[in-house]
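User: Design a sequence. Structure:
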């Protein structure tokens, strides 16, 4: 079986214990492939599922051929909300290439009928979520 990195995010929310671990055949995330100018191709990654000291769980994909690691943190109980992620990768070409890390942490969330909040008067909600 070949996994899609893009599907992992949804599978975490559904049943993280069913995620593949060990060496897995996977197609890296489409955004990464596009920004890194990589062809869409199957590669091998090392996948681990761990419990952190904070009680959160983490799913990590390590791509040795791409010098890239993606860790997705999530709550340990259903609905397994994603609390953050970290991606370390090589950016640039030749001698100017360097390792960069992107981190994201959820600090707020709201349970709203988002399809009812798409007008200008709803812009205040963006500020409440720290999106401005």
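Assistant: Done.
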């Amino acid at each position: 079986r070949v996994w899609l990195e893009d599907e992992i995010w949804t599978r975490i929310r559904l049943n993280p214990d069913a995620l593949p671990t060990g060496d897995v055949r996977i197609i890296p995330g489409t955004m990464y492939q596009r920004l890194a100018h990589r062809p869409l191709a199957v590669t091998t990654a090392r996948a681990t599922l761990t419990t952190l000291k904070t009680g959160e769980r983490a799913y990590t994909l390590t791509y040795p051929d791409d010098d890239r690691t993606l860790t997705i943190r999530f709550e340990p109980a259903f609905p397994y909300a994603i609390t953050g992620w970290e991606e370390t990768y090589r950016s640039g070409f030749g001698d100017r290439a360097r390792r960069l890390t992107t981190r994201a942490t959820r600090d707020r969330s709201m349970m709203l009928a988002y399809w009812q909040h798409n007008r200008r008067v709803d812009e205040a909600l963006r500020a409440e979520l720290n999106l401005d």
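Residues 2-107 form one domain. The CA atoms of residues 97 and 125 lie 39 Å apart.
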